[in-house]
């Protein structure tokens, strides 16, 4: 990425319930460089970046063109954390680091069951997606291997160690760009 003083673009992805938003919020607070947390799902709702709402699945059908147009200037400026359950729509050139959060499917089921108005079929679909490593495969097929990191997200200790690892990556990223 060209501009030397701009922050990294970090994508935090994973099956719903793996802890993306918790990780992104904590990272935005503790990062050694300013990072803005963008909850992409919330942005889709707030800025009407969808084609329709699916009542049966209780989810939005995202207008990917509108979403990418909205995110492009933010990604170009850098210093953002993109928090979403999918990553393959984000152009490869945007990403400096792609973090895929993983969680044992039985823990994931329990987490999703606690969500309000979360249909059983969505819990089943997401549980299956986690078992089949759908998001991890998507990340590995969309971005260079060296920027994709798989991290366990099951316990509070995982959250803390994951944030430490990402902050170490940010420090190395800064040094590579002589920003330290």
From TrEMBL:
Organism lineage: Eukaryota, Fungi, Dikarya, Basidiomycota, Agaricomycotina
Annotated GO MF terms: AMP kinase activity; ATP binding; ATP hydrolysis activity
Coiled-coil ranges from the UniProt annotation: none
UniProt-annotated binding residues for ATP: 17, 19-22, 116
Signal peptide: none
Keyword terms, alphabetized: ATP-binding, Cytoplasm, Hydrolase, Kinase, Nucleotide-binding, Nucleus, Ribosome biogenesis, rRNA processing, Transferase
Record-stated family: Belongs to the adenylate kinase family. AK6 subfamily.
Predominant location category: cytoplasm
Name of the molecule in the record: Adenylate kinase isoenzyme 6 homolog
């Amino acid at each position: 990425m060209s501009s030397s003083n701009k922050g990294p673009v970090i994508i935090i992805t994973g099956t719903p319930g793996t802890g993306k938003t918790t990780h992104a919020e904590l990272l935005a607070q503790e990062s050694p460089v300013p990072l803005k947390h963008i909850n992409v799902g919330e942005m889709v709702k707030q800025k009407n970046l969808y084609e329709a709402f699916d009542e049966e699945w209780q989810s939005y059908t995202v207008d990917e063109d509108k979403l990418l147009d909205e995110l492009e200037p933010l990604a170009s400026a850098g210093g953002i954390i993109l928090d979403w359950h999918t990553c393959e729509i984000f152009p490869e050139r945007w990403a400096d680091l792609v973090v895929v959060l993983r969680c044992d499917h039985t823990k994931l089921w329990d987490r999703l069951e606690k969500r309000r108005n979360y249909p059983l079929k969505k819990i089943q679909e997401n549980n299956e997606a986690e078992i089949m490593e759908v998001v991890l495969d998507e990340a590995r097929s969309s971005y260079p291997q060296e920027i994709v990191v798989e991290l366990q997200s099951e316990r509070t200790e995982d959250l803390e160690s994951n944030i430490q690892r990402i902050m170490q990556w940010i420090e190395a990223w800064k040094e590579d760009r002589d920003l330290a």
